[in-house]
Amino acid sequence: MKRALILLALVLPGAAALWYFSRPQPIPVTVATISAGPVEQLAANSRAGSIRACRRSRLAVPVGGRVDQLLVSEGDQVKAGELLLTLHDDEQTALLMAAEADLKAARLDKERSCELASFSQREWRRSLTLAERELVSSEQLDRLKTEATTALTTCRVAEVAIEQAQAQQALQSARLEKMHLRAPFGGIVAEINGEPGEYSTPSPPGVATPPAVDLIDDSCLYVRAPIDEVEAARLAPGLNARIILDAFRGQVFPGTLKRIEPFVSELEKQARTVDVDIYFTPVPDQIRLLVGYSADVEVVVEQHENQLRVPTEALLEGRYVLRYNPESSTLEKVAVQTGAANWTWTAITDGLTAGDRILTRLDTEGAVDGARVEPQ
Questions:
Q1: Domain parsing of the chain, residue ranges
Q2: Contact criterion met (CB below 8 Å) for 175 and 92
Q3: Tell me: the pLDDT tens digits for 204-239?
C-alpha cells in the first residue's frame, strides 16, 4: 500500500502536467457587444444601374448638306439657342435675299397702287359735285367711278401681294434655319460626328446614324436602376435613397426616389425587375459626374430607431447567434427573434439583451457551439 501511494504521488503530477499542456487552446475570436441603434428597411438594385441626364439630345441637321462651320468642340458648355453647326447655305441665302427683295418690291407696289387709288377716289368725288351742276357728263362720271373702283381693287391686290411675299420670305428663312443646328437647351457637348467639308445627312426612318452633336444637360442627373419586383411593391415616390458610385468608392450621395416604371421588365425570366429613377439631391458640385457611370442605390423603405441590433453577418441560418459565456469562456448557440433588417444590421426582438457579446466572424475555424474561445 505504501508503495502504491508513493507511485501514485509520482504519476499524478505528471499526468496533470501532461493534460494541462496538451489541452485544446482557446480560439481567438472577434466578438461584439450588443447595443441599441437605428435599423433601416432597405430596397436595393438587383443589377448595377447607371447615371443618366434628365435631358439628352442626339442632334442632327434636318436637311442634307456639306458642313460649312463647326462652332463648338467636344466638352464645350453651351447655352440654349447657341449655334453649333452650319451647312453650306449660299444657295438658300440667295433665295432668302430674293424673297426679301420681292417683299420690298411688293411694299413699293402697294404704296404706288394705293396712292393712285386715293387719287382716283378724289377725282370721282369732285366729279360728283360737278355732275350736280351738269358740268360733267354721265358717261365721264361712270368712267371716273370705274377707274376709282379698279384702283381701289388694285391697292387691295397689292396688300395681298405683300402677305404672299412675307410668307415666301418666312418660308425661305425657315429653310435657311434648317441648315443651322442650334442647342435646344443648355448643356455640355458630349460628342461630335463630322468635320467642315464633310457631307451631313439626316437619318432615314428606321436607320440609326451617329448624331451630328450629342448634347447632355449635366445640371440635372439621376440614376436608373433595376429593383426586384418583390421589393418594388414596397416603394413609393418621395422616399429617401442613397447612391453609391463605383468611381467614388467610400462616398455616399443623397437622393430621392422620383419615378417607378409602370411595368415589369422581362429581360431576365428568372429575375423580373422594375426600373426606378433616383435623383441626386442635389447634384454634387465638388466632383464631376459623368453620364454612364455605374451606380448602386439603396431606397430607405422604413426606418426604426433605438432597436436592439446585431450585425447581420453574425446570424446563423437567419435565427441563431453564438453568444459568448464569460463564466465558462465558451460559445453557446442562442435562438433569437428578428425584426427589421438589412445587410448591415438586424433588429432583435427576443433572445438577447443589451450588453451580451456575440461572435461576429462565423468563418472562424473551430468557433462552434461549446467551443472554448478567447475574445479579441
A1: 26-41+305-375, 44-54+218-304, 61-87+180-200, 90-177
A2: yes
A3: 666 667 888 999 998 888 999 999 888 888 899 999
